[in-house]
Write a structure and sequence with these properties.
Largest sheet: 8 strands, antiparallel
Number of strands: 18
Structural class: alpha+beta
Helix content: 25-40%
Distance between the termini: 33 Å
Radius of gyration: 23 Å
Length: 372
């Protein structure tokens, strides 16, 4: 589980520290940095796991506009394996040349070094704390992405693999495609490739697919019977949903089908929400959802919230949500909420969401009235 994120000199985050819990709702005004923390998690994941270059990950526009410093610092803490991982990255910018480089990159487990890049050489350490090999490395990317797993460096590769399991979504049903030409195990931000993700899950995780099918049958999609991937051409598959309608007659009507694209925006969003819940809320994975409530009615959101709360607890998962939705705020803010703030467009800060049962107004009403 991610227990701490620190960022300095990144957009509106200056000397910023956030300590997320297993289930957390982030609220705050527009521009207060809520989505920015998800951006950082995605950038660090792609930098460490995918080998994304430093110029692509930390472009010059990511520096804080009013800060004259040219160095950015990031720290990510994660609790696992009966200890604490700490990853630290420093990026140095050269504004005149519009270039940047990795100044330093470190990974430690319970204060014992696992990896240390000093700007020129990468130094590896074994799981028992002893010094391993060192080698020169390019400062334009992370060496962590290139290190193979060995019997003596499993803590390092475990951390890298866990970063891979940070899922960040802002579902947009208007972009979701019915056709899956291939399998996708890491879907995009807006879930355009939801069908390709389900194609992958149907081959790799029958448990997830069956749980999703059961959830959709429990009144999430009225009349839903099943979903399937129907062959289309040589390698394509179309995500189809089967429904039936009893009507008011004694005779049951003939079942009918819609492709994912033919469902309503709200129905597509619900399919996405329950897919990410069953596929991504599990031990050692982190699900980040930005505005999950768009396109979904209040009564449709409640079953997802209930299942989410139960699953985070039962599966020891972590889910972090950004939302302005009154239903989400009233359900989660009092116990699981934090508030992001900015004064006069200055640096973002985070504080607990304060509300008790003695309050005369619901949490969402307090927010709507300007936090007063």
């Amino acid at each position: 589980m991610i227990t701490r994120l620190y960022a300095d000199n990144y957009k509106c985050l200056v000397n910023f520290e956030w300590r997320p819990t297993s289930l957390q709702l982030i609220v705050g005004d527009n521009g207060s940095g809520k989505s920015t923390v998800f951006d950082i998690l995605g950038i660090l994941r792609d930098f460490v796991v995918g080998g994304t270059g430093v110029d692509s990950a930390f472009g010059g526009r990511t520096l804080t506009a009013w800060d004259q410093r040219t160095e950015q610092t990031f720290e990510l803490d994660m609790e696992a394996n009966d200890g604490k991982y700490r990853y630290r990255l420093a990026i140095e910018h050269d504004p005149d040349r519009m270039k940047r480089r990795v100044k330093s990159e470190k990974l430690a487990f319970s204060d014992a070094s696992l990896y240390d890049f000093d700007g020129r050489e990468a130094h590896l350490f074994r799981d028992d704390g002893s010094r391993g090999p060192s080698f020169p490395f390019d400062w334009s990317r992370s060496a962590l992405a290139t290190i193979p797993e060995r019997p003596d460096n499993r803590r390092l590769t475990w951390f890298r693999d866990r970063l891979r399991d940070i899922y960040i979504f802002s579902p947009d049903p208007r972009q979701m495609d019915s056709l899956a030409d291939c399998e996708v195990d890491r879907p995009d931000l807006h879930l355009k490739d939801l069908a390709a993700w389900l194609r992958h899950l149907s081959q790799q995780s029958f448990e997830v697919v069956n749980e999703l099918r059961d959830s959709l049958k429990e009144g999430v999609l009225q009349g839903f019977r099943d979903f399937r991937l129907e062959r289309r051409g040589e390698s394509g598959r179309v995500l189809q949903f089967d429904f039936e309608f009893d009507g008011h007659s004694a005779k049951r009507e003939k079942p009918f089908s819609f492709s994912l694209k033919e469902l309503s925006d709200g129905q597509r969003c619900l399919v996405a929400l329950f897919t990410m819940l069953h596929a991504s809320v599990r031990q050692d994975a982190v699900l980040c959802v930005d505005e999950p409530d768009n396109f979904v009615a209040l009564r449709e959101l409640q079953p997802w919230l209930t299942k989410l709360n139960d699953r985070v607890h039962d599966r020891h998962g972590q889910c972090l949500i950004v939302s302005h939705h009154p239903e989400l705020i009233n359900y989660l803010a009092a116990e699981h909420g934090v508030r992001f703030t900015r004064d006069d467009a200055g640096p973002a800060r985070v504080k607990p969401f304060e509300w008790t049962n003695e309050e005369m107004l619901a949490p969402s009403e307090i927010i709507a009235r300007g936090w007063e």
